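Retro notes, item 3 of 5
We never archived the inputs for the magnesium ion complex last cycle. Fixing that now. Sequence and ligand:
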Amino acid sequence: MLCLAIPNRDRLDIAHVILDFNGTIATDGQLIPGVSTRIEALASQVTVHVITADTNATARDQLQGAPCTLKIIGADRQDQAKLEYAQSLGLESVLAIGNGSNDLLLLRQAALGICLIQREGAAIPSLQAADLVCVDINDALDLLLLPHRLTATLRN
Ligand SMILES: [Mg+2]
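Structure as it came back at the time:
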């Protein structure tokens, strides 16, 4: 469990981190350097899930051996499919990280949503639905591994 006590916000008890794949932990279907070791570190505190449309059909290969569950979704209503997956885990226990239009509902409804820009850019509505935006996935994952950084940004 990752417990986030941010001043003037409800305390968050995060049991699940949901990551999008392309544009979030991968570029052009290839896992971004630095992500694996951070997922391993996070996995001692939370369950890590990767949910993706798998545009480049590389997710299973790239995540082989990583301590995370992989959910590949179909072509239609991807925003809804991602949201329903998070709902099945309990939205109040989910922190989500994504960049695309199909992450919008997930970013909006998760207990905490982080939108990423990186190489593929971020869909503006998804960015606005998130609590926080990062430029780089390793920075975003470090917010969870070093939560005083997250507190500094979100406290009021
Ligand atoms: Mg994406």
